[in-house]
Every structure is written in C-alpha cells, then in structure tokens.
C-alpha cells in the first residue's frame, strides 16, 4: 500500500535521496515554465528569470517538500516495522504451536522456576528483610543479660532500673513482661495477652494513638490510678469500637479505665491486646531474679556496638559485689536489633528454602537451555533453507528472538500465577511462629529479577542456532541435513547440561529427603507421655474474686472432681505446663534441707491425676494422691534424670527439695519430701532432650497455679475432642466468667512442630518440582538425539540389529550422563551437608537412606524419561527411515 | 501584475483543484500548474511553487501516488496520479463545496434583496 512505488531504501526515493528528488522536480518545473514563456516570445534569460519569479521561493518550497516527504517516509517505516513485528509474532506462535511438546516443556519449566523463586523470595523479603513498621526501626534494640553459659536471659528489675538511670546510649529504655490473663469488662470474659510495661514504652516505639491517649509518665510509678491502653483489634472486637469513657477492664486484680487505643497493626509484644503500666513497688530487688524483657531506642548517632560496650561495662559494675548466687548473675549483656530478634528464628529455614528455590531456578534454566539447544539443532536445516532462499540473517535472528520472547512471556505469565498460588498456600499453611507471614505479598521486583534471569537463559540458548548459522555456510548445513551428527562440542554441552541438571536435582531431592527423615524421627520420638486420648484446658481465674493462690488451687480441685464425675472421663489432673509447649520455669532448686545445695531443673506443679491422664510411667514410689493435701506433709515427684543427676547411687525417696527462688517467699524455705520417681517427659519441645524435672503438689505450693491454670483430661473413649462440650458446660457451671479454652493435646503437639512441617512441605515440593524438571529435560534431550540418529538406527535395524540392542544403545548413552550427574550430586550433598545439619534431627547429612533413596528415585525418573524416546527409535520401519533423508 | 486584482485562493481549495485536475489522468507538477492556470484563466493569485508542497501533502495522505516517468517531451518528470482514496476524497470535497456554496449563496443572496 506504499504510495511511492519502486525499490525503496532508508531515506531514499527511487534511489534518489529526498533532496535530489525535490530539487529535480522543481528544476523540471522551472525549465518547462521557461520554455513556455520562450514560446510566448520571451528572451531565454528573461524567461528563466520570470519562471523563477512566478514560482516563489525555491528554497522555501524545496524545504517544505523535503520535510513532508521525510515525515511520510518515517511514518511508513514505523508501520512497516510494526507490521514485520506482527508477522514475526504470528510466525513465532505458529512455529511454537507446531512443536507443542517443546512449547509446553519450555513454558512450564520457565514458569515453575520463576514462580517458585518469586514466591519464596517474597516470603523472605516480607518476613526477614522488610523493616519493622515503626519509626526508624533500625534504632530499636533488644537487650538481655548474658548468663554463665553465654546465652541470653531475661533482665532483673534492679539491673533494669540501673540501666535506665545510668546509660547514655539510649534515648529510651523500657522493660515489660506479658502474660495471658482473663479480662472482664468487655462484652464477655476473654483470655488475652496483657503486657505490663514501664513508662518509656510508647516513646521507644514512637507510635501515635488511634483513639484517646497512650500512657504517660504520670501513669507510671507507685500509687498511680490504674489505666489501660488496648489494641485496635481488641477495641473493635471486644469493646465494640465505641467510646472509651465507660469502659472498665478488670485485669490482674484491678479495674482499669481504658484511656486509649494503640494504632491498628501495632503488635508488640506479639499478640498483646492490653497494655498496663507496670507496678514498680512489688518488683524484686534481687539481681538474680530475671523477669523482664527490655527494648531500647538508640540515641541519635549511637551505633549498636557502642551501646553494647557501654551496657556490658555497666552491667559488670552492677553485679560486682552482689550477694546473689553467681550462677544466676549476669556476665554481661546480649544485644540484637529488634528485627533480628523477632525474625531471627525463622531465618535459617527461610534462607534454606530460598537456596532450594534458587536450585529449582538453576535446574529450570539448565533444563531450558538443553531443551532450547535440542530444538535449535533440529531447526538448523529449516533456517538454512530460509537463508538460502534469501532471507537476510538479521531477519532470521529477529524471528528467533521473537519466538523466544514469546516463550519467555508465556513462562513469565505461568510464573506469576504459580507464585501467587504458592504464596497463598504458604500463608495458609505457614506456622504462626513465622512472624509477619500474613503481610506477605508477591513482590514485583523479585518477579522481574527471576523473569530477567529466565529471559537471559532463553535468549542465550535460543539464539545459538542463529550464531551457528553464521559460522557454517548454509550449503554445508543443507547438505548435512538431518545427518548432523551429535558429536563434538555440541554434544559435550548437552552432556554438561543434562549432567548438571541431574546433579542439582539430586541436591534438592537428597536435601529434602534428609529433612523429611528428620521430621519422621521427630514425630516418632518418645516424648514420655501419651497424647492421643488427652484434651487440655487452660483457665485464668479473676484475680479479684479469687484472692489468694490457695483460692485458685481450690477451684481447680473442685473442677477436677467435677470433670472426673463426667461420663466418658477417665482421669483428670492439674499440671502447670503441657508437654512440648515450652514456657516451663527453669531455675535453681535447693536440695536436702540445705540452702547452699543447688540443683537446676524444671519446676512444675501437678496433681496425681495428671501423671495418669498423660500416662507418664512411674518408676519408683508413688505419685500424688488423696493423702497429700494443702496441710499435709509437702511432697514432690522427681524425674529419673533429676534423681540420677543429683542423688547418684542413692535412693531418692525421702530426699528433700524446694523451689528456691522460683517459689514465693513463704514457700521457699519449706522442703518437700520426694515420694516418687517418674520417667522423662519433654516439656520444652519435641526436639529438646528432656531436662531434670521436679513436680510439686499444686495444692501445697499454689503460688504459680495462680498464673498458669492448666488441666489435662483423659477420655475413656479415646476421642478427646468428644469431651469438649461437657467440659465447657462444667466450666460455665463453676464460674461463668472464665472463658473456656479447650484444646485436644494431639493438636497442640502437632502445632509445636508446625515450623518443621512447613519446611518439610516446601522442600518436598521443590524437590518434586526439580525431579519433574530433570525428567522433562532428559526426555527432551534424548528425544532429540534419537531423532537426529534416525538414519543410523535405521541402518542398524536393517542390518539385523535387535531392536532391544538399539534401544539399549540409546539408554546406555543417556544413563551414562545421568550417572555422572548423580555422582556429582552425591558429592555435592556430602560436601554441602553442613549447611543443612542445623535443621536435621536424629539424621546425619550423609544418611544413606535419604541419599540412596534420592539417587534411586532420580535414576528411575531418568530411565523412564529416556525409555520412551528409545522405544520410539526402534518403532519405525527401517526402509521408511532411510528414505526420509 | 495583471490589471485585474486576482482573488486570494481560499484555504484548502487548492487541494480540491489538484484532485480535480488529476482526476482526468496522471500529470506532472508543471502540467497541473498549467492546467490550473488555463482553466481558472489566472483568476487566482497563487505562487506556482505552492503547488508542490500541496502535491506532497496529498501524497502523504495517500490520495496520490507519484513516479518518475518520461514526459511527452521525452524528458524525465515526476508524474502524479489519483489513488482510489483520492477519488473518494475528491467526491467528498466536491459535495461539501457545493453544499458550502449553496448555503453561502442562500444567505448572501437573501441579504442583497
């Protein structure tokens, strides 16, 4: 539809440049006009003069004409390019559709690689890297005292006060602790986390109130009227989001008017719904009673290292000369940025997953490279034909480029969808212990990064055929045709790619095999109790209506009796901590009626029913029973390791033990007599070795029962969930103000290993993905090799070769490469095993089951992937095969 | 200068005149210019050079095509010819010109009486 006809090149019209075209046209006009004038009788010179005059400004007309024609040519070039692009795209789609197997493998490979990476990196970014949502979050520091073993421990009140008064590194320093407590005064009684904190709290976090005000300096200190600040969600969900004037919350023995609401999303300490100024007068003056968490905001210009050094010196000065037990005094401080402290626990697993996702991307790119190479090789002939028919090389390259960009685009689309799906699944399955997981969203920059890597791979390997085309001359490529044998450099590249892919996939498979195996080990671990038929109750009684610890303990006794009277209940008992949940006080105990004779162990309160409900085996003596009451002889049960550690070779029955600093003042001088020894129970977590444990009688030392009202109930039927309604109504009957929290123990145990399960699921998913990718890669390469050697196969068959021998030839070559890849992968696993060791439990990184299993699985997949094309190689009629040339 | 003052050519009318001229067959620029002069009896005052940008503009809009050919005198000249789109444009322009003249004539003619 060009309006200028004829051969046309850039900037030229009919081989003339635009200026010549215009000038010649004008010159022609002037000459013709002059001739006309001459014919009318003008002198030649005057005629030329007159023709010019009549024409007007030659220069101006010429310029205008040139401009018009040039802009026309530009517009035509543009639309010509668009048209060519459209042609290329159409042709690209058609060629891809003609090779659907290749297009599918390439697109899926790309999409899965991009998607897995984007999803995991989005999680890592959202959880680990994204700054905390506080003003200048880098200045927030978590402080602990350092214990004698070099670890961190909570801060003693006396030390905090001195830190607060004397430090110069922090502009604000706040101490707090939180506990789960029943709160009355809302629409119904609820159990929520309450944080008790000192006055700097809000200025350290620097958040504005959403309603009313936050607590001020005047609210803190002794004898101040009680006030409370509530979380935005608590205000909305429990207080109904209305005015605050009339709200009085009954928390921890006081009625607190609500003065304000924290901003939405403010969640520190995690899960807190009510913040209440700490009562300072009742705090222990001891420097060895570690009860507080401390967060500070660094002063302007102060680095964490300098602050650490100052606090270290300060702390050492403080504890010098203290009369307290040196085992429980600080040996310095432990500091970390708040962000590290909050997300540090998830870091290792997340980076491991990121590494795994990176491996998946590598496998995907390797796979893609070999697939593209194979395809490129089959297209050499087609391209050579086109080139010999006169298609310029640039045009052929552009064609290949378009095709590959289409592939990359389709892959990226699949990747986005896959990433979004994976992130959604992660958010649902992710354990609550992974902080901020709920805020994660697919990260566009990561997507762009993964997409760019994939695009580069596609371009680098997809354009190879074009490069080869320029090296060899077309006639050679044509003559060679399908016979292009797969020897030399090209074949080496493939071997490297396939071998590398197999090695990488083995790394992933073996790694996830190790993690799966250690998870199995963990679940099979004998934690020392029987959870299947047990349900748990967590109760928090009003501190106002039940004044003394004994009142609390008495209520529990009443409840246990009522529960045991219910049909379907086998046994019920009190226990101050559920197994494998953590949160067990661990500290100094005193032995043998001697305050200087120390032991370190877990401090638990229990009733006799708890041992039976949990089926904790009794090894010696007896557990608590009706003989032991609040007023009787104080008794205790110890764990086997406690007896063996502190009374080695002696009979523990009749020995005495007290809770030392973990009891209240009244009880700490009273020694309990050991009446029994039970087997080990893992209280801290499934993976932590059991620790020496002392069980005191809950009615005799009820001090801690006030804060941790927990009961276990064993179902006769074996189905603990069936008891829930009856247990709940019994609770309602005994005290309608106690919010029921009833959870079967198996669920709690499962939840305690949720982070491990999360890692196992993800790693397993990645491993399967890489297995699939590796198989697809092997399949496409072997298919190609077979197609290349059709003629050779035909000759072998025609000469009487057994089909099985011919198949064997194909398989042997493929499996040789796979074997080398497997060996390389195994070497990699063994060398890199230390990376994963910290995540393993009861399994060595060189575990033969995991490694062997992974290798077998991969070898099997490789066999299957090369078997199909090998089969195809002998299915053709030799005559047809040879004639196909 | 002729004794009688020629009229200013109304804006856009040159295009119609060119299309009309070429509707009778391919012609080079000089031919168009000469034909216009003769058929209008030099009624319009227009520099002859102004024709060429107009031709190229019409070509750019797809109403004309051009080609260097041998002219009747045996020399090379750039010949323009009407495209199908150009024919349609000419028909459209003629129609709207008639409409214009009719309206103007009605209004102005009515004003005189």
Task: Describe the protein.
The complex is a heterodimer of chains A (885) and B (113). Chain A is of the alpha+beta class. Helices cover 52% and strands 16% of the residues of chain A. Chain A is elongated. The two termini of chain A are 42 Å apart. Residues 1-10 and 480-489 of chain A have low confidence and may be disordered. Chain B is globular and about 50 Å long. The mean pLDDT of chain B is 84. The chains are: A alpha+beta (885), B alpha+beta (113).
Question: Brief description of this entry?
Answer:
The complex is a heterodimer of chains A (about 900) and B (about 110). By secondary structure, chain A is of the alpha+beta class.
Keywords:
heterodimer; A: 885 residues; alpha+beta; 12-stranded mixed sheet; 6-stranded mixed β-barrel; 24 helices; 25 strands; elongated; disordered N terminus; B: 113 residues
Q: Give the overall silhouette of chain A.
A: elongated
Identify the strand order in the major beta sheet of chain B: 2-5-4
Count of helical segments of chain A?
24
Q: Count interface residues per chain for the largest interface.
A: A-B, 30 and 26 residues
What is the CA-atom radius of gyration of chain A, in angstroms?
40 Å
Helix content of chain B: 40-55%
From the helix content, strand content and strand pairing of chain A, which structural class follows?
alpha+beta
Largest sheet of chain B: 3 strands, antiparallel
Major pleated sheet of chain A: 12 strands, mixed
Element order of chain B: H for helix, E for strand: EHEHEHEEH
For this structure, the quaternary state is heterodimer
């Amino acid at each position: 539809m060009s309006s200028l006809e004829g051969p046309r090149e850039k900037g030229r019209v009919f081989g003339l440049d635009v200026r010549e075209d215009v000038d010649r046209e004008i010159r022609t006009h002037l000459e013709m006009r002059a001739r006309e004038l001459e014919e009318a009788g003008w002198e030649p010179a005057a005629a030329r003069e007159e023709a010019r005059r009549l024409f007007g400004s030659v220069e101006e007309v010429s310029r205008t004409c040139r401009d018009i024609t040039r802009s026309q040519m530009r517009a035509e070039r543009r639309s010509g390019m668009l048209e060519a692009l459209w042609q290329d795209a159409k042709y690209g789609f058609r060629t891809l559709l003609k090779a659907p197997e290749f297009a599918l493998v390439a697109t899926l490979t790309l999409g899965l690689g991009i998607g897995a990476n984007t999803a995991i990196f989005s999680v890592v970014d959202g959880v680990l890297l994204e700054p905390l949502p506080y003003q200048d979050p880098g200045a927030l520091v978590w402080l602990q005292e350092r214990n004698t073993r070099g670890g961190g421990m909570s801060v003693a009140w006396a030390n905090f006060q001195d830190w607060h008064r004397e430090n110069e590194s922090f502009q604000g320093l706040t101490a707090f602790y939180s506990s789960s407590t029943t709160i009355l005064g809302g629409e119904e009684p609820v159990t929520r986390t309450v944080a008790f904190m000192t006055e700097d709290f809000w200025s350290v976090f620097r958040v504005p109130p959403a309603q009313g005000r936050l607590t001020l300096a005047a609210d803190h200190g002794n004898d101040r009227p009680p006030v409370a600040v509530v979380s935005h969600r608590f205000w909305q969900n429990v207080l109904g989001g209305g005015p605050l004037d009339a709200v009085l919350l009954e928390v921890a023995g006081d009625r607190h008017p609500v003065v304000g609401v924290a901003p939405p999303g403010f969640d520190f300490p995690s899960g807190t719904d009510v913040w209440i100024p700490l009562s300072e007068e009742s705090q222990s003056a001891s420097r060895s009673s570690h009860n507080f968490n401390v967060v500070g905001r660094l002063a302007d210009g102060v680095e964490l290292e300098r602050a650490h050094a100052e606090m270290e010196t300060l702390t050492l000065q403080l504890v010098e000369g203290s009369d307290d037990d040196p085992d429980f005094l600080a040996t310095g401080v432990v500091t970390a940025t708040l962000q590290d402290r909050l997300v540090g626990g998830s870091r290792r697993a997340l980076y491991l997953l990121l590494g795994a996702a990176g491996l998946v991307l590598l496998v995907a790119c390797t796979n893609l490279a070999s697939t593209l190479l194979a395809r490129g090789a089959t297209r050499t002939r087609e391209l050579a034909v086109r080139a010999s028919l006169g298609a310029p090389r640039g045009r052929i390259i552009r064609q290949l480029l378009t095709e590959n960009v289409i592939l990359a685009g389709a892959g990226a689309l699949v990747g986005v969808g896959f990433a979004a799906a994976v992130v959604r699944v992660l958010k649902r399955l992710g354990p609550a212990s992974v902080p901020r997981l709920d805020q994660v969203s697919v990260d566009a920059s990561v997507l762009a990064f993964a997409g760019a890597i994939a695009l580069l791979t596609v371009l680098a390997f997809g354009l190879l055929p074009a490069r080869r085309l320029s090296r060899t001359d077309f006639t050679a490529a044509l003559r060679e045709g399908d016979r292009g044998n797969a020897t030399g450099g090209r074949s080496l590249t493939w071997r490297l790619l396939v071998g590398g892919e197999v090695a990488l996939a083995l790394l992933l498979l073996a790694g996830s095999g190790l993690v799966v195996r250690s998870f199995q080990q963990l679940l099979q671990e004998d934690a020392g109790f029987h959870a299947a038929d047990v349900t748990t109750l967590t109760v928090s009684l009003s501190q106002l209506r039940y004044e003394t610890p004994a009142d609390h303990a008495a209520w529990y006794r009443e409840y246990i009796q009522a529960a045991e009277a219910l049909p379907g209940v086998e046994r019920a008992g009190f226990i101050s901590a559920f197994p494998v949940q953590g949160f067990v006080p661990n500290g100094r105990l005193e032995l043998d009626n001697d305050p200087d004779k120390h032991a370190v162990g877990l401090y638990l309160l229990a009733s006799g029913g708890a041992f039976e409900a949990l089926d904790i085996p009794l090894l010696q003596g007896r557990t608590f029973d009706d003989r032991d009451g609040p007023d009787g002889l104080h008794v205790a049960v110890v764990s086997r390791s406690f007896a063996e550690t502190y009374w080695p070779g002696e009979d523990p029955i009749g020995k005495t033990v007290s809770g030392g600093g973990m009891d209240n003042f009244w009880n700490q001088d009273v020694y309990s007599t050991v009446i029994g020894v039970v087997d080990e129970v893992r209280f801290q977590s499934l993976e932590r070795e059991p620790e020496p444990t002392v069980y005191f009688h809950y009615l005799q030392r009820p001090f801690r029962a006030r804060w941790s009202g927990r009961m276990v109930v064993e179902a006769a039927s074996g189905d603990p969930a069936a008891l829930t309604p009856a247990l709940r109504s019994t609770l309602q009957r005994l005290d309608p103000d106690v919010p029921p929290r009833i959870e079967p123990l198996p669920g709690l145990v499962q939840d305690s290993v949720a982070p491990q399960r999360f890692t196992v699921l993800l790693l397993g998913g990645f491993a399967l993905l890489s297995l699939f990718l590796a198989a697809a890669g092997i399949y496409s390469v072997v298919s190609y090799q077979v197609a290349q050697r059709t003629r050779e196969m035909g000759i072998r068959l025609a000469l009487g070769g057994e089909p099985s021998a011919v198949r064997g030839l194909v398989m042997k070559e493929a499996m040789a490469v796979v074997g080398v890849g497997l060996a390389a992968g195994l070497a990699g696993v063994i060398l890199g095993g230390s990376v994963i060791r910290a995540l393993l439990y009861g399994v060595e990184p060189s575990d033969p089951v995991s490694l062997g299993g992974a290798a077998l699985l991969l070898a099997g997949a490789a066999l299957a992937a090369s078997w199909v094309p090998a089969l195809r190689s002998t299915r053709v009629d030799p005559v047809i095969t040879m004639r196909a040339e | 200068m002729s004794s009688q003052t020629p009229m200013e050519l109304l804006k856009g009318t040159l295009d119609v005149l060119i299309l009309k001229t070429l509707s009778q067959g391919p012609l080079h620029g000089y031919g168009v210019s000469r034909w216009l002069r003769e058929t209008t009896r030099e009624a319009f005052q227009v520099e002859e050079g102004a024709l060429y940008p107009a031709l190229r503009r019409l070509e750019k809009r797809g109403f004309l095509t051009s080609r260097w050919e041998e002219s009747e005198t045996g020399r090379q000249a750039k010949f323009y010819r009407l495209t199908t789109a150009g024919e349609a444009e000419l028909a459209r322009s003629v129609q709207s010109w008639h409409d214009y003249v009719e309206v103007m004539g009605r209004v102005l003619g009515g004003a005189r009486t």
